[in-house]
Amino acid sequence: DAVRTLIIAGANRYKVNMKKDTPSSYVPARLRSWFMRAAPIRAEEKKYLEDKFARSVATGMDVAMIRHRLDTLDEADRGHLPFEALTKCLVEGGLEREDAAKHVRDFLRQHKNQAEDDICWKLFLNEFIRMKLFHCVVQLGKTSVFGKADRDNTLTLSPKEFTAHLTKQIGREEARKQSTRLFYKIDSNHDGSLTQYELRKWYRERLKALKKAQQSKKA
């Protein structure tokens, strides 16, 4: 009965959330194996998910959709995937193949305990997201990019404007998850808005911390 209840809960969530235009519409990973055995996904549902992923590529990178695709490829729920699978998902997510492969190779160089045919994709994705967020802040430090993000011409960015910029870079769902926490870290005087000075100060401090950590590893 407990298993039956869990399967029904997963099916109901899937049915309700299919109406939403976010990657949260997918059945949770912990329910997937049970749900798929009890009620295999129909061809039209599979096509819907594939079309949804294709649309995300057309509108820019969507980290949440990439996470879903990686989770789908990890059929055995081992948490590990080979080099080619990671690269392919990044390419499908909007990166050039050369850039995608470079990201994975850089990760392997930083993590000597990871094998090319057995990479912890969640660890990789978390580090990839941190890198993308850092890049978003660096971009905003540029006057031309900051000016476009500052829609009301106040010379500061509101939380809404900051989230809108992140959305273009990493997708709507991931931007909503990350923006509040990151905004608070950058907003050094806690006045509820970001200046170019605060943006540049934050990423320079992050660079110093990164260099210090790398030097400690070498020592």
UniProtKB/TrEMBL annotation:
The keyword Calcium applies. Residues 174-209 form the EF-hand domain. InterPro entries: EF-hand-dom_pair (IPR011992), EF_Hand_1_Ca_BS (IPR018247), EF_hand_dom (IPR002048). PROSITE patterns: EF_HAND_1 (PS00018), EF_HAND_2 (PS50222). This is EF-hand domain-containing protein. It comes from Lotharella globosa. One of its GO terms (molecular function) is calcium ion binding. SUPFAM superfamilies: EF-hand. Keywords: Calcium.
